[in-house]
């Protein structure tokens, strides 16, 4: 089974998010999946949301740019573009970015 692994960071690096994405990737491969890497995805669009993040920070609130529709569309577009001719059986992401 071909599994396309899409993630905004380097999911092969065990230092990313306490190793969770890398552990998932290894487990998929260990169980016989052919893992196709679709990472890291470009996050440069996040800088468009810097003023909004600053506004929230000054109010003592947390702002999640990674939940903005524009950012999510950008990530999904990149993943679709990288899929190209790979034709995986499933696309997996350890989060909700491509949902």
Notes on the structure:
By secondary structure, the protein is of the alpha/beta class. The chain has one domain (2-92). It has three helices and three strands, in the order E-H-E-H-H-E. A three-stranded parallel beta sheet has the order 2-1-3, with helices on both faces. The longest helix has 15 residues, at 69-83. The protein starts with a strand and ends in a 7-residue tail after the last strand.
Oligomer description = single chain
Structural class: alpha/beta
Strand tally? 3
Q: What is the distance, rounded to the nearest whole angstrom, between the alpha carbons of the first and last residues?
A: 21 Å
Helix % is 25-40%
Beta percentage is 5-15%
Number of helices: 3
Main sheet properties: 3 strands, parallel
Question: How do the strands and helices of this protein lay out in sequence?
Answer:
Blueprint: E1 2-6, H1 20-30, E2 34-38, H2 50-58, H3 69-83, E3 90-92
In short:
With 99 residues, this protein is of the alpha/beta class.
Keywords:
99 residues; alpha/beta; 3-stranded parallel β-sheet; 3 helices
């Amino acid at each position: 089974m071909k599994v396309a692994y899409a993630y905004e960071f380097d999911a092969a690096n065990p230092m990313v998010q306490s190793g969770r994405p890398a552990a998932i990737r290894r487990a998929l491969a260990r169980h016989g999946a052919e893992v196709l890497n679709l990472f890291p995805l470009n996050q440069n669009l996040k800088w468009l949301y810097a003023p909004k993040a600053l506004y929230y920070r000054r109010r003592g609130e947390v702002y999640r740019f990674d939940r903005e529709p524009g950012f999510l569309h950008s990530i999904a577009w990149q993943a679709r573009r990288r899929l190209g001719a790979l034709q995986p059986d499933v696309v997996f992401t350890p989060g909700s970015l491509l949902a």
